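assembly run, all chains below
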Amino acid sequence: MTAPTTAPATSGQLATFRLDGDLYGIEVEHVQEVLRSQQLTRVPLAPAAVAGLINLRGQVVTAIELRERLGRPPRPEGTDPVVIVVRLHGEAVSMLVDSIADVVDVDAGDFAAPPDTLEGQARDLIRGAYKLDGRLLLALDVQKALSA
Amino acid sequence: MDGLDDIVEEFLVESHENLDQLDADLVALEKEPNSRERLSSIFRTIHTIKGTSGFLAFNRLEEVTHVGENMLSRLRDGELALTPHRTSVLLQMVDAVRSLLTTIEASGGEGGVDVSAVVADISAAMEDGDGPAAEAAPVAAEVAVPAAAPAATKAPAAKKAPAKAAPAKAAPAKRATRAKAAPAPAPVVEEPVAELPADLPALPALPAVPAVVAEEPPVSESVAVDHPEGEVATPDAAGGQGRRAVADSTIRVDVDLLDQLMLLVGELVLTRNQIVQNVARSTDTDLIRSSQRLNLIASELQEGVMKTRMQPIDHIWSKLPRVVRDLGLQLKKTIRLDMEGRETELDKTLLEAVKDPLTHLVRNSVDHGIEAPEDRKKAGKPAEGVLTLRARHESGQVVVEVADDGAGIDPAKLGAKAVQRGLLTQDALARMSPADILQLIFLPGFSTAAAVTNVSGRGVGMDVVKTNIEAIGGTIEVESETGRGTVCRLRIPLTLAIVPALTVECAGDRYAIPQISLQELVSLDAEKAANAVEEVGGAQVYRLRGELLPLVRLTDVLGLTSERHDGHVVIAVLRSEGRRFGLVVDRVINTEEIVVKAVGGQMKAIGLYSGATVLGDGTVALILDVQALARRALRTETTERQDSQKAALKAAAAASDTDRQRMLLAAIGGGRRVAIPLDTVTRLEQVRTESVEKVGNREVVQYRGQILPMVRLDRHLGAYGETDHEVLEVIVYADHGRSVAIVVEEILDIVDGEAAVRSDIDDMGLLGSAVLGDKVTELLDVRAAILAADPHFYSPVSSAPAGVPDSLLEV
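ok done. output:
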């Protein structure tokens, strides 16, 4: 589990999703499941990135709002987020994204350092970018992103 | 099994297990005769059995094991070499032990089992080296063919005891089949004798059987028939033909498995809740009936699974007499340890978690609670101190008390120490009730031994005890009476996984409050709430049967906005650390058994939630951590302490806090109003005029078992109120265990002192006047008023009186 995050450039499969117009990817082996929008129980006084708690078949799972984590504007009214459940250190955590996309095979040769235009907290959370045909795939450091 | 002592029973179970191990060890030893480790292990086992049997007065058992032990010790020390013959004799000994155990189990005594032959064999085998001498017994004769012996003996054994033949055959046949996968049982016995012992170390157990049969044919037979399943499951124990009812009636289960079962039952309970909730809306009677049935069964199952994890508290108590004895000797104190309710059961995990705190409390009691014999005699108490452990079930919790009849904790000394150590300001101390002061022992700063010994009470790591108890969802409180002793009371939930809880709603979300901290619920309609809840500057109190209950609005704590606008107030009266407070919520939903789920690290860091749960309708609800809530919401000594510890800047802040003092407004007749600092007020009471009695020229009233001196404020201040009230409004002020009653005409309001316009126009008994609530109000000199009622009020503790009037002067 540690290998993909410590080595910056890896070949393999990334599960991709869209967030505020950009395409992101996380290692497919981290992903446990993807769910439609879920009922969230808010947690007062929790960090802003904690969107709430969801009931995943009797398990209580924390949901992290990835837009907040990456410093993006809130999701427009009326659009439901998609929940990606990720298993980290044996514990299920989930993140809210705009929509889910394909699983993509990436090649280490296409990897580049994070674009210099990236700023602030987002820069810490993004390992780099894979140059795909016609667009960039941002590789999310899932451990950092969900340890809010 | 009736009539068997617990000790004997435990001994039997343990010994049966040890014997199985012993068989395996002995056979393995034969393969590597020089393994000192194995020899030592065998030696230890036999030694244990010997020791216990001596203790329990099983003489023959002791005799056999004693001679066996002798041989083993000589083998271990290298004086004797291990020969196959000696191994066999040892195995014979094991068998003899086993048959003795069986007899003990069946009849409670050793019965007629004859061990002399075995003893003679062993003694003989110790004397000379090998086989020939062993011809005395038929069993030993077969032993002469070393490896083949154990299996071969089976045949004659079966012949000799026909009653036993069937079961004896059944068992090994099964095993043999498993081991060799051979089709027919018979040839297996004859043929591969040479390798059998290696594969099935347990097998040699069989020869002993005849002896057993002679004593108790029915028992062994029925067990042997019952047993095959067990044998298949546990090949190791399979040789335990001698494993009888006691061992069979208990089974060792991996705690993980129980945990998993518990988890599943938790889920089941959840699902049950959901179904019951949904069915409640249904009209289908069949469905309703089966859901009720499900409800019942799930509850019973839950209880059953919980029971599997339950152990009597005696498991941890049993070590305490030793602790008390040793520590008592060391400190030259004589202490009797009484235990009540040792059979009280609680969850194994909790039991483990309580062990250390409990030991700690006991040590504390012995060390600091109970005085030295001389001191006790001086105090008119028997020289022998009594330490009492009590455990009982009480409303779904386990209450464990550690009580001593020692010197108790003197709140005055304790408080003074706290001030001296800078944990508390003198001011804050003066305002605290003795019960509150006792809670100081849980402050981390009190955990050094020196401080504690001086203060005559506890505190060595009491904060740690508290933390540990709270970590398992329990609470701890301490009660003490100077000169009489101290009681530490732990309240522990029955189980960690499923807790009864109250679900409440606040700002549209639901939260769960564990019942363990809940005392009562108060619901006030808008009209009542307007009067009963006194509110100033966001700080609220409610008079609950005369006692001032500080109110905490959950919405304020959580930074939310209440969705309740109709003025109704719902108060959950909670207890935390010996203090009560009222949590104001939007509404109460119901009580529910909830399954506690851990929450992620981010949630834990907030420090307000002890976990989360899934409610009947599938929504997630946070479980409020009442202790943390109280700490955060109440202006406690703890926060004041932190304030005072933080340099001068903070000290100034604390001073401005005192400026903003809240005042109780009261009418004293003649249209005059006085203000009394609220923090000097302990309780508000109503006293019937006819219950006022006289002592000399003073008025007193009996109140909670003590005589309460009274001062009528109207007379004290020269006002002329109506004197013929039937019921007197009384403000009770207490400090250092003394109380006085201040009689006023009417309790008017509670206001914030800060907003007041002050003037120095005053009179005797007053400190000045101010405009409070739009009217000129006199500021009562509480000290003078109290002294008028009880001239000795401040005398016992000379340092205390400073607190009250000083703080008032700053108003």
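The longest strand of chain B covers residues 385-394.

Residues 312-493 of chain B form a domain with the Heat Shock Protein 90 fold (CATH 3.30.565.10).

not gonna interpret more than that til we talk
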